[in-house]
Amino acid sequence: MSNFRARINVSLRPSVLDPAGEATKSAAIKLGIKGLTKLRIGKSIDVEIDANNLEEAKQEVEILSERLLANPVIEDWNLEFLPFD
Amino acid sequence: MTIGIVVFPGSNCDRDVFWATEGCLGIPSRFLWHESTDLDGLDAVVLPGGFSYGDYLRCGAIARFAPVLSSLLDFVNKGGKVLGICNGFQILTELGLLPGALTRNHKLHFICDTVPLIVSSKRTEWFENYKFGDKLLLPIAHGEGRFQCDEETIKRLEDQDSIAIRYCNNPNGSINDIAGITNEKGNVLGMMPHPERACDELVGGIDGKSILKALIST
Questions:
Q1: B38: contact with A, CB 8 A cutoff
Q2: I want to staple B52 with a disulfide (CB 3.0 to 4.6 A). Which of A80, B8, B24, B62 is the partner?
Q3: Hey, are the CB atoms on A19 and B93 less than 8 Å from each other?
């Protein structure tokens, strides 16, 4: 069994208003950032998981993402496996 | 006739509901710890407001896996009544008993106010003592109450006559002014306003009484 490291990025679906992102964008413009056309806030979740192989680890993390970490009604997610430092 | 009031770590309206149901309305009520799975003898269950599990991850996302809620699915399937208030409404959507999701208020403010609402469906027992278009005043207190769903779902809710109450002056950006919805069967109601805080004239009104009475109407 090996240990795998994954990062799940959860973001609001493009059709869902992101008021926190809008507020942060307006602060960024006040800061003087030039050319900023979009700012949306999501979250990133790091996990480490034991599995027999990458495929098995991926399966588990996909279930975790779909059923707990993201709410498919309002959020999209994607998954990347990372090397250990 | 007994109702159960679920207590999650972080619930903070559980005692208010008890005060309203047993104290103001005389409905025998008991608290249900989130780890219990025994709903025997209950006619209705209330999921109260608050910040269950600290609202970590998303409001209601962790509460959804509480043992008491696995029993709740059976309870609902058998026709038991469930009322989710505020955080309770958020939990019901996470659990899939009601469609959609409650998201951050469009202006980011936590809104604590008493707001006018309009009864927009009389299809279920929850609002049987009201007339269509009746207005009521109820307190709201939430940061994440903006009801959101896709176009297909909103059409289904409208077509099924499942939108129970709407805001008169939409405070949070909810789609179609939604403040509360029911499931198709009508035994589950989720609402952001707090009926339990409007059950005595001394605290500003009694417009919430009739909704709570419906917990035990047959």
A1: no
A2: B8
A3: no
Pick from A18, A20, A71: which is nearest to B94 by CB? A71
Q: Where are the domains of chain B?
A: 3-216
Residue in B25, B55, B16 with CA at minimum distance from that of residue B212:
B25
Instruction: State the average pLDDT for chain B.
Output: 95
Torsion angle of the four alpha carbons B118, B121, B125, B129, in this order, in degrees rounded to the nearest 10? 50
Which pLDDT does position B218 carry in this prediction?
Answer: 65
Domains of chain A: 2-82 (3.30.1280.10)
> Is the complex ipTM more than 0.90?
no
Q: Which residues of B124-160 are buried (b: 16+ CB within 10 A; e: fewer)?
A: bbbbeebeeebebbbbbbbbbbbbbbbeeebeebeee
Pairing of strands B163-167, B178-182: antiparallel
What region, left, alpha or beta, does residue B149 occupy, with left being phi > 0 and alpha being psi -120 to 50 degrees?
beta
- Minimal C-alpha gap between B58 and chain A (Å): 8
Q: Are A71 and B58 spatial neighbours (Cβ–Cβ below 8 Å)?
A: yes
**Catalytic sites of B, residue numbers:** 86, 194, 196
Task: Categorise residue B53: left if φ over 0, alpha if ψ from -120 to 50, beta otherwise.
Answer: left
Distance separating alpha carbons of residues A61 and A33, to the nearest angstrom:
37
Q: Is A16 an interface residue toward B (CB < 8 Å)?
A: yes
Name the CA radius of gyration of chain A, rounded. Answer: 16
What are the tens digits of pLDDT across the range B22-76?
Answer: 999 999 999 999 999 999 999 999 999 999 999 999 999 999 999 999 999 999 9
* B153: three-class secondary structure by DSSP: helix
Q: Is A31 on the interface with B (CB under 8 A)?
A: no
Q: What is the CATH number of domain B3-216?
A: 3.40.50.880
